[in-house]
Amino acid sequence: MTDQKRKIPVEEDNYTHNINRNNERSLDRRGFMKTLVGAAGVFAVASLPWGTLAAKELMGLSDKEYPHKKIVDVKDIAVGDSVEFYFPSEHDSAVLIRLEQNKYVAYQNACTHLRCPVYWVKEKHTMVCPCHKGKFDVNTGAPTAGPPRRPLPGIVVEVKDEAVYAVRVKRYEA
Amino acid sequence: MKRSFVGVILLCAILLMNIVFLQLLVHQYYFENYVAVLTYMGIMFLLFPLALWIYKKEKYKGDHSHEKE
Ligand code: FES
């Protein structure tokens, strides 16, 4: 008798008897899985711009040649001294250091931590960032102390006609 | 009704891996290890079809309404 009562009448005016409510929960789970798959897709797409930029760097498209720029005359820079200059644009400050008679190194001197200007301390034979006491190796530009984690970008220099020229910005090689 | 959560758990694991690898990818970009960036991007792109495959496989698990009909 109770069974009889519970039975859903299949009549012409019943438009809901085909909805299977037992399925609701399993559809929930399925919907959740769908969302997760969608998230995986979004993550894949999100990694795309980084990948393209990386590929661009690898193909050396950013390794641009800038017009050579004269930094200083050789007679104006003593061994162990440094001069500041701007390369490649006048907003990129850089520093040239004469380590030995014929050895020059140059770096863009915006600190790789928070872009304070890094300067050369002759007595300590190291490059120092005044902001948070970051230090950089003068031969490689690699950070040796303090918060910076990336090396300073090196600049290739060339000595020609008794003057030092900036040629291009080096790509960082890991 | 018995439900299967294997798919849900696996997909959650994939989501976790997505988060971890994206984080690593962005860091490696700033560390200028571009080859590593491309590797991580490859992993990210493999995770998506993997997720899709798991979803397709697990879609009807634990759903017995189809068996009855
Ligand atoms: S800005 Fe150079 S150490 Fe913080």
TrEMBL record, chain A:
The protein's superkingdom reads: Bacteria
InterPro entries given in the database record: Rieske_2Fe-2S, Rieske_2Fe-2S_sf, Rieske_Fe-S_prot, TAT_signal
Q: Which residue ranges traverse the bilayer? A: 31-50
* CDD domains reported in the protein's UniProt record: Rieske (cd03467)
Family annotation (SUPFAM superfamilies):
ISP domain (SSF50022)
Q: Which GO terms describe its molecular function?
A: 2 iron, 2 sulfur cluster binding; metal ion binding; monooxygenase activity; oxidoreductase activity, acting on paired donors, with incorporation or reduction of molecular oxygen
User: Can you give the residue ranges of the Rieske domain?
Assistant: 69-166
Q: Which UniProt keywords apply?
A: 2Fe-2S, Disulfide bond, Iron, Iron-sulfur, Membrane, Metal-binding, Transmembrane, Transmembrane helix
Keyword presence, Membrane: yes
PANTHER family membership: CYTOCHROME B-C1 COMPLEX SUBUNIT RIESKE, MITOCHONDRIAL (PTHR10134)
- Supply the name of the protein: Rieske 2Fe-2S domain-containing protein
Q: Which organism is it from?
A: Aquibacillus koreensis
Lineage of the native species? Bacteria, Bacillati, Bacillota, Bacilli, Bacillales
UniProtKB/TrEMBL annotation, chain B:
Record-given protein name:
Uncharacterized protein
User: Where are the bilayer-spanning segments?
Assistant: 34-55
Q: What are the UniProt keywords, alphabetically?
A: Membrane, Transmembrane, Transmembrane helix
Q: Which domain of life is it from?
A: Bacteria
